Amino acid sequence: MMRILHLSDPHFGTERPQVLTALQALAERLAPDVVLLSGDITQRARRWQFAAARAFADTLPAPVVAVPGNHDLPLFNLWARWRNPYGNYRRAFGQRLEPVFAEPRLLVVGVNSTRAGRHKNGEVTPEQVARVSGHLAAALPGQLRIVMLHHPVRAWSQGDRKNLLIGRASAVPAWLAAGADLILGGHIHLPYVLPLAGDGSRSGWAIQAGTALSSRVRENVSNSVNLILYDAGHPRGACAVERWDHGTAGFQRVAHTDLPLARP
Questions:
Q1: Measuring CA to CA, how many Å separate 210 from each of 95, 128, 217, 218?
Q2: What is the pTM of this model?
Q3: Average model confidence (pLDDT) for the chain?
């Protein structure tokens, strides 16, 4: 069984130390094969915040695959925002803003949905849609195929529709048709799982993570992370997601959702 720990929106600079300690303990307990970090790693993209995030990532028992969020670009330093918006991010998490992680059971394609010209909203271009589709189409038969970006492609509440990815109307059907099983995101600090339907016969799942560490929680939902489970040996690729919320006893599992995959 492959175990994928999905974290989002830790917002280093607003992290809660007791939650950080509890998350480190949870990661050791769950022993994931890989950790996926879907953006807003820092609160204000400052070098010390990225250094703290990198130090945390280095304590985790698995490789970390990350994409930036809108908070990972400088807000007040306008020179840096326009001339070198990802400088501090790259110093901490590497040069690639759209990493690809592949092993025999898993393919993760990262997407940078941030834009220096947008304060909050995310966007994908036709070129990005085509690049991701190409990676998905070349996936191995037994791989779980994940697209990870910061901004959500589906909203749980009507009020969050303003936060949805610009370009999703073309991106989601194209990615599903190319083979995507799951599309992971963050941004709105609320965890949920919703089905995705494409233009053809394939379907998939939108999986959102809450804020992993920040005090900036929403709607009385505590700090939260996801654990994705995948059995590549199952004829149709058995997949599920568990939600783990922080409480007085540390992180506890609060939900388990089976995710039927659109496999032949």
A1: 26, 25, 8, 9
A2: 0.96
A3: 94
Crossing angle, helix 168-178 and helix 126-137, to 10 degrees? 10
The pLDDT tens digits of the residues spanning 21-65 come to 999 999 999 999 999 999 999 999 999 999 999 999 999 999 999
How many domains does the chain fold into?
1
- pLDDT tens by residue, 174-227: 999 999 999 999 999 999 999 998 777 689 999 999 999 999 999 989 999 999
Q: Are 190 and 210 a contacting pair, CB within 8 Å? A: yes
User: Can you tell me the mean pLDDT for 139-145?
Assistant: 95
180 alpha-carbon distance from chain centroid: 14
Nearest CA to 42 out of 111, 90, 110 is that of 90
- Burial of 236 per CB tally in 10 Å (0-12, 13-18, 19+): exposed
Residue span of the structural domain in which 187 resides = 2-258
Give domain status of residue 263, yes or no.
no
In this structure, are strands 144-148 and 106-110 parallel, antiparallel, or unpaired?
parallel
Residue 94, domain member (yes or no): yes
Q: Which two tokens stand for residue 106?
A: 């898993």
Residue 238 counted as domain residue: yes
In this structure, are residues 152 and 187 in contact, taking their beta carbons and an 8 Å threshold? Answer: yes
CATH code of the domain covering residue 43: 3.60.21.10
